[in-house]
Here is the input.
Amino acid sequence: MKIEILMGSNYPDGEKDIRVEEGDVIEVPDKIAKSLIKNNAAIKFDSKIDKRTTKKRARNEKGHYIADNPETEDDEAWTEEG
Here is the structure.
């Protein structure tokens, strides 16, 4: 599956880890892609989409991260941009 990386991370490739950075578009096995997407580290890449929204950690007016409230359906810790 082809994905676009939203935040730098390492992922396993056999016996070694591969480092990818924000904005990289890579082809990875579906299992790894789904894990990165689930953890908000990547989005599925579709070259036909001109404008994609990306998620970014939400911050308050002081610049501190905002935590997610587990009692709500929305994930307040992340905001969409794009």
